[in-house]
Records
---
Amino acid sequence: MAHRYIGKNIYELRKKRGWSQSDLAHKLDKKASTISSYETDSKTPSVDTIIAMSELFGVSIDELIYGENAEALSIRHLAAEQKCAVADLLQGLNTVQQQQ
């Protein structure tokens, strides 16, 4: 499932620190064009890059991906039955989206 809002979060966290795309690229050993691709959601960062970014920005991976709503969107504290219900709901939404 692509997270089409991770780019906005990367952009906002980068700007909050006063970093240019080149600055962040250098810290991650990436090209500035790659950072641009992340921020426009045309490319999704690898898991390793997401971990590195969360460490650089000093935020959890959940916050990097989901932004300020990370805790509200977390299913970590749900019971197993509730997690299954959420998974079923997401699968249903995915099916509807694919049919459109």
---
Amino acid sequence: MSIQRDGAPEIDRAAIVVSVGAGLDPDALHEALALREPGIHIHDDAQGEPSCGSSRRAPTGRQDDGTDEQQQGGQYAPGCTLVRIEREPTGSLRIAVRLGDGRVFVRSWSATPAEPERAAATSLSHLLAAIADGTAEQEPPAAETALPAPASPTSAPEVRTVPPAPVASRPLAQPTSPQPPRFEFGPTVGLVTAFGVGPPVALAGSVGSGGLVGVELRHRSGFIAGVEARGLGARADELRLARLRVAVALGHSFRRGRFELRTRAAFLVEPWWVVTRGGAARLQSGPPLLGAALSLTPGLSLPLAPAVRLDVGLRMEAAVSAHAAAGAAVQLVDSTGAPVFRIGGVELAAVAELGVRWGRTRRRSSP
């Protein structure tokens, strides 16, 4: 036994004609409605104007009182229901239902679903249930609704009947997408080769090779900050030059898909020393180099897991540094006065980088 509220109409599903507007696939809507409201008829705008006669399997039947089943006393047959489903230019869906007594019910939502036909079929089923239950809100009588005017029975277009299907309707699952982590943090390692440019010209060229290790923090806006240590070494005969550079860097990371372009500016402090071998080893050093560097690193940022990425890139760097006591570029000479090493001045470097970044992700519902 079912209880129906006063004024709530009983809607005959076989007397419903659904008019499909532009932007929706009638075949996909036909299949979606078969799962939720078996027996409803689908009408495509390309077939002409829909009519209440289209909602009957026998559109020209007669009643016992001698009047047409479709029309009695100039009014449309009780239970005749026209439904208009359309997709607006903004992408939102709009459903309008006109009952045989002239009442109109409208439901629309601005969010654009991924599968509009399934979303429209589900929403129509809920709206029809609310109308039958008396809980749906009726449109004001003066409001205009975008429903096609009922046509005469003689111009009833061809309709397709949705066959009943014993498949229970299932609610649409809201897909989720991972939200980018607010912060990513991880280590970086690399192989370095450096070249001196400009005076002293006699020592221009390779000034050493080595490696680097550092840590970096990246915000999802692209801001990056990091600290790293770089070691370089060079040798000439029995002399060994060692340099250890500590840098604090700030910059920006531009990431699109798997491509990443990182730009950084760094402040440098670089101690150095020379080791003499042959007989007794001797260690010589001096004040550290001070300077700054700019770098550009194109590369790939590859997702290994929802919260883990592998960064691979080739850094190109230009640095300027000076000896804290002697000024710009300084050349180091051996015991005979021959120049053997240069430190400071303008240097270019190439670095093959490999880094891992960790972050914490949270999932969010997609509209």
---
Amino acid sequence: MSIKKKLGMGIASAALGIALVGGGTFAYFSDTEVSNNSFAAGTLDLAVNPSVVIDVDNLKPGDVMVREFALENNGSLDISSIDLATAYNVVDANGDNVDDFGKHIKVLFLENADKTGDGWVIGDYNDVISETTLYDLQNMTPDATENLQSWITWLLGLNGEDSGMAAGTSDEMYVGFEFVDNGEDQNEFQGDALELEWTFTAHQTEGELR
């Protein structure tokens, strides 16, 4: 074998040996940082103040009752809507009812005054319920924070707040009830009672890129 071939083999062998040694003792620089992250959920906390909106007795046909209460967003998240569900129980004192007492108790209005704003100047009250009996309300779920004002009110700058309720705010509500006098015999309701349950369910706003 010639010197060149031997030398070439020696270099190849030496190079391979270095590569193997290098592969076994490979060293590198490094630096490590730790990122501590967290996910904290917000809260929806709706309150009705006072919790008992109306408690009245000794009613007779034709009586009208107006009450005031507030819906309060005590949570950390904005509310997009508040559904109102109606349920009631009639206590038939004499067991002689042939009609539903709920058909004779009407909600004349449920106004969200914060949404009305100055709309009252032109008679545009933000009534989320209007002229509806409790019997019919059982099948309805109005949004208590929806702004229903006409475009004219907005054009004139008399409108109230937008629909929904920001965190830490409240909406003032006014409600009117009537024991309807239908001009007919309503003696079957004498001594009766109607237990009304209004359930307000708040919903969050749409999710967003954070």
---
Amino acid sequence: MNKSTLHVVWKLVIVSLLVGLALDFFDVSPVDLIHDIPDTVARVFDAVVRAIQWGGKYVLLGAIIVVPVWLLMNIGNLKGKFRNKNKP
């Protein structure tokens, strides 16, 4: 095998490990995955929706502070860009 093939195989092993860890986090076993694919997809989807519902509240709460502060910090940069466009 050449170096490129080994590199691809190594990437596949690493990605497979990460996906396997993620599926184990959602309590999915290989047997469940093969026998109950629709149920497995539904369980993973429900877990993702629950995570978004849990985290969404905190993202919105933080954005109430972060976005206006970011806008205030970057308004000078925007003003400078518009001034340079108007000068010949």
